[in-house]
Amino acid sequence: MTMMTTLIMIFIIISNIFMLISMLISKKSFLDREKCSPFECGFDPKSIARIPFSLHFFLIAVIFLIFDVEIALIFPIITTFKMVNFFSWFKISFFFIAILLLGLYHEWNQNMLNWST
């Protein structure tokens, strides 16, 4: 065997030993059902499926996702500033940001940004 294969085998053995030790030492409790649950929104997935769900919580999550995706779409606009014609870049950027601001105004006007209503 070469020196490199020996080192790789030693690293694999050491990492497996560390994983085994961490599994033995860890304080994982099997009694806590919420931590083992695949859902993170606070309801019990093993209970009745017809419980009422907060529609406002869902709408806040959708608003967050929409604005998160829009931020990801703004970054390429910034990076193409020096590559394209300024007038067309300004028109497209202004149109996109105007749509964002109109959507934000609509959400604010409908009181969807207030959590306690």
Attribute tags:
electron transport, mainly alpha, NDAH_ubi_oxred_su3_sf, 117 residues, translocase
How would you sum up this structure, described in words?
With 117 residues, the chain is mainly alpha-helical. The chain is built from 4 helices and no strands. It has a domain at 53-116. The protein is 65% helix and 0% strand. Core subunit of the mitochondrial membrane respiratory chain NADH dehydrogenase (Complex I) which catalyzes electron transfer from NADH through the respiratory chain, using ubiquinone as an electron acceptor. Essential for the catalytic activity of complex I. Its main location: membrane. Keywords: Electron transport, Membrane, Mitochondrion, NAD, Respiratory chain, Translocase, Transmembrane, Transmembrane helix, Transport, Ubiquinone. The chain crosses the membrane at residues 6-25, 55-78, 84-105. It is found in: Membrane; Mitochondrion membrane.
Order of helix and strand elements from N to C terminus: HHHH
User: Describe the biggest sheet?
Assistant: none
Please report the number of helical segments. Answer: 4
- What fraction, in percent, of the residue positions are helical? 55-70%
Shape: flat
Task: Quote the average pLDDT.
Answer: 79
Rg over CA atoms, rounded to whole Å, is 26 Å
Poorly predicted runs are none
